[in-house]
Amino acid sequence: MEFITTAEEGAGERLDKYLPRKLPEMSRARLQDLIREGHICLNGKTTKPGATLRPGDTIAVTIPETKPVEVQAQDIPITILFEDSDILVLDKPSGLVVHPAAGNPDGTLVNALLHHCDDLSGIGGEARPGIVHRLDKDTSGCMVVAKNDIAHRRLTEAFSERRISKIYLAVVNGVPQKGAGTQSNRIGRHPVDRKRMTILYDGSGKEAVTEWKQLSRYKDCALIQCRLLTGRTHQIRVHMKEGLLCPILGDPIYGNIGKQKVPSTRLMLHAWRLAFHHPVHDKPLNFEAKIPDEYRPWMAEV
Which residues, including other chains, have CB under 8 Å from residue 177's CB and lie 6 or more apart? Predict the structure, then answer.
């Protein structure tokens, strides 16, 4: 148990806003959960996250033991690009689901990470890896994963504040009319087909911005470099299909695989480069995932 006595600067402040400054390794959301669960008491009594502090108040904080997760650790090969006690960066292969779900209860990236990592301090009180951003099952390339609460919180903030550089490679069916441009619009769930996202023109949805340029072409299919300024679900896939009118090769949702100019056995979308500052040490980090062999016909001109 750790006791903290409020200082003068905490007077009049909410408990859940004051505590993150005293316990920076924990997120505000995690501290709110601990307050609601009775692990944080104010003057010897359970309280609420929004309790107003007064000078001289005593806060008692008990950090419960990290709970094991129900997800099974599995020995699934993964390619690690970087790892330390706070984060892990990997090159995710195409075909690997990130999270266990009803249709994929195991055999996922989370199962693989639980087997690989023996130093998880936990996210939100559970001994699990912190998935900060996701890649679709059939998208390959760079992903960063947090090992503890503070890394998870700071990386999440960095993504939200657009301080992380994400560059993708996509091969599209067709050749755009222009050589480069920016897709800036709003993306949301398709009103009829709930499996798809779409560009919305009624002011709903979320802002989605993709900078793109054509790098090469082969058999009337173009290699496109995409720089994401936002991170919406299926953002590049929607922008290529609806913005450039050139769906990504191998896309079973937004493309017509039977009418592709070049056959493809996978979704031709690859998270090529990822750059950010380390969430704890603030050192600049740059990573590049090997370009898959399927891209070889387009790389001769790059």
Answer: none
**Alpha carbon separation from 207 to 194, 212, 219 (Å, rounded):** 19, 16, 33
Collapsing DSSP to helix, strand or coil, 66 comes out as coil
Measured CA to CA, the distance from residue 220 to residue 206 in angstroms comes to 32
Burial class (CB in 10 A: 0-12, 13-18, 19+), 169: buried
Asked which of 14, 44, 61 is the last residue of a domain, the reply is 61
pLDDT tens, position by position, 85-132: 999 999 999 999 998 776 777 899 988 998 888 777 666 555 467 888
> What one-letter code names the amino acid at 64?
P
Task: Please give the model's pTM, rounded to 2 decimal places.
Answer: 0.79
Q: Got the DSSP string for 209-261?
A: EEEEEEEEEETTEEEEEEEESS--TTHHHHIIIIISS-PBTT-TTTS-GGG-S
The vertex-179 CA angle with 210 and 227, nearest 5°, equals 25
Classify residue 114: in a domain, yes or no: no
Instruction: Say how far apart CA 116 and CA 78 lie, in whole Å.
Output: 9
Give me the domain span that covers residue 199.
Answer: 167-271
Active site residue 91: no
The active-site residue, picked from 91, 136, 138, 251, is: 136
